[in-house]
TrEMBL record:
Alphabetical list of Pfam families matching this protein: adh_short
Alphabetical GO biological process terms: steroid biosynthetic process
InterPro entries in UniProt: NAD(P)-bd_dom_sf, SDR_fam
Organism: Sus scrofa
Disordered: annotated segments: 1-56
Protein name stated in the entry: Estradiol 17-beta-dehydrogenase 11
Top-rank EC class of the record's enzyme: oxidoreductase
One example GO MF annotation: estradiol 17-beta-dehydrogenase [NAD(P)+] activity
EC number: 1.1.1.62
Length: 327
């Protein structure tokens, strides 16, 4: 009976093992098929993405006329270089003739056609007259990058009235004049892109940057309102992008620091900007934690915000004009 029992058990066990191995084999085959299918889909997706990027680079971007203000140095210059690599036709504006020519020469070396115009972006009439020259000599601008900006690091009393006026003339009023000059052609074609270079300071008040913060708040508002206006006018082919970076290592502000992280390198910011334009992002925060902080500012009580701001600890060299006479 024991032998019979063992004999009866053994075949059943072997059969179970065979069935289990068969199931495992079939499962492995199915798993391999799924993995292979996943790899093929990934390859197809990757190829599609690369083809799309390549199409943007060679077909679409190469036909664009890109105007960049403040192109003689810093972010404007690096942005021009990236568009030159995409073979766009470039229109470069800056008040600094020497820096402007250097940028234009490098863009040409990169294989792009570059047209340099010395323009004072604080002067409305200069902007309008230069815009007419651009239309006559180059054509209709399809991508406008409002990048030119100025900053004065001082308290309200040490900031001279002409400095406050110039901050607003360059950092926001120029956006109105350039957009009024070049947007009509974009709307007519229902194709174009308005890029607003703002700042994280356009979302948070920073001491000793009163004029700058105010102008950048206005720039962010300009971007948002323009976006809604284009939608209301059903000009969905005209895109908008707003760049809001933290402190950038460009030398405009002396010895800046914050607990949000190290200074941003201009190359990193420009790469994010170009990617944002090509992918039609509305708002670009660098670092992305700034977006989270703007949300917190709307929901946290004031006492918690005060603690948070002390933790962020924004610091830089500034001129303090107001003095308290201690008795």
């Amino acid at each position: 009976r024991e032998l019979s029992g063992r004999a009866g058990w053994a075949p059943a066990s072997c059969g179970a093992r065979r069935r289990r191995r068969e199931r495992e084999r079939k499962g492995k085959v199915k798993e391999d098929e799924e993995l292979e299918g996943g790899r093929k889909n990934a390859q197809l997706l990757g190829a599609s993405t690369e083809q799309k990027k390549a199409g943007l680079n060679r077909t679409e971007s190469s036909s664009e006329i890109v105007l960049i203000t403040g192109a003689g140095h810093g972010l404007g210059r690096l942005t021009a270089f990236e568009f030159a690599k995409l073979k766009c036709k470039l229109v470069l504006w800056d008040i600094n003739k020497h820096g402007l020519e250097e940028t234009a020469d490098e863009c040409k070396r990169l294989g792009s056609k570059a047209h340099a115009f010395v323009v004072d972006c604080s002067d409305r009439e200069d902007i309008y007259s230069s815009a007419k020259k651009v239309k006559a000599e180059v054509g209709d601008v399809s991508i406008l990058v409002n990048n030119a900006g100025v900053v004065y690091t001082s308290d309200l009393f040490a900031t001279q009235d002409p400095q406050i006026e110039k901050t607003f003339e360059v950092n926001i009023l120029a956006h109105f004049w350039t957009t009024k000059a070049f947007l009509p052609a974009m709307m007519k074609n229902n194709h174009g892109h308005i890029v607003t270079v703002a700042s994280a300071a356009g979302h948070a008040g920073i001491p000793f940057l009163l004029a700058y913060c105010s102008s950048k708040f206005a720039a962010v508002g300009f971007h948002k309102a323009l976006t809604e206006e284009l939608a209301a006018l059903k000009r969905t082919g005209v895109k908008t992008t707003c760049l809001c970076p933290n402190f950038i290592n460009t030398g405009f502000i002396k010895n800046p620091s914050t607990s949000l992280g190290p200074l941003l390198e201009p190359e990193e910011v420009v790469n994010r900007l170009i990617n944002g334009i090509l992918t039609e992002q509305k708002m670009i925060f660098i670092p992305s934690s700034i977006n989270f902080l703007t949300v917190l500012e709307r929901i946290l009580p004031e006492r918690f915000l005060a603690v948070l701001k002390r933790k962020i600890n924004v610091r830089f060299d500034a001129v303090i004009g107001y003095k308290v006479n201690e008795q």
